[in-house]
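Input set for joint prediction.
Command: fold jointly, output tokens.
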Amino acid sequence: MTATPDPVPSPELLGTRIAATDWTDAVRAAGQLLVDAGRCTTGYVEAMQDAVRDLGPYMVVAPGVAMPHARPESGVLAPGVAIVTLASPVAFGHAANDPVDLVIAFAAIDKDAHLATLQRIVSLIQDDATLGALRSAPDETTAAAILRDHHDPALNPSRSQQ
Amino acid sequence: MKIATVCGMGFGTSMMLAMQVRDILADEGVQASVDPVDLGSFKSMQADVVIAPRDMESQVTAGPAEHVVLIDNLVDRDEVSSKVLELLRSLAD
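tokens >
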């Protein structure tokens, strides 16, 4: 049966103000969160880096936002999304959307669950107010709270709709 | 009409594009199939239109689709929508 998509990324899959020297380091930082949470192998993290290297930086999907991923068979153990904000932006080599300060790495297995996850990622990236708050979040707990508000605004009616 | 959304693996970016393009076409009442595919599959498929990240311009323009739409911001509904609608208008002329 279909794997249940991750609900909101839990705090262990969030990293804030991470120091990354370059894009490979930024992908590794997000990938390591997935590895530590048992969602993928280190081989999958390398596959994400290889994908950017071999296929090009098109995974920088929006200004400042990279969405590294690789194929399920490259070492996904369980579905997961890791979100990392960078202390200083890094260049991925994208003509329009560099530099990147937000990295959303995902590991996917099941197609239907994956689509739901992608939809959530798209809606997150389209929400400028949430992205802005996430980028200035000082720590993982704050970032987790921001994501909870984004995904379930009904739980926080005081949050103004942008 | 057959539309392919293309990315390197056919698993992330192309699916994000496909979801948005399907919504836009549904809003316009346009009948079309929208298939997310990887670059290798695209080269050997039949498609009238290809929609892809601008970074993949050289790879997709060499492909089988007559019409090429290139997107900079892959989650910008306004950009995707205006470029898709512009294409539909040009096809209707």
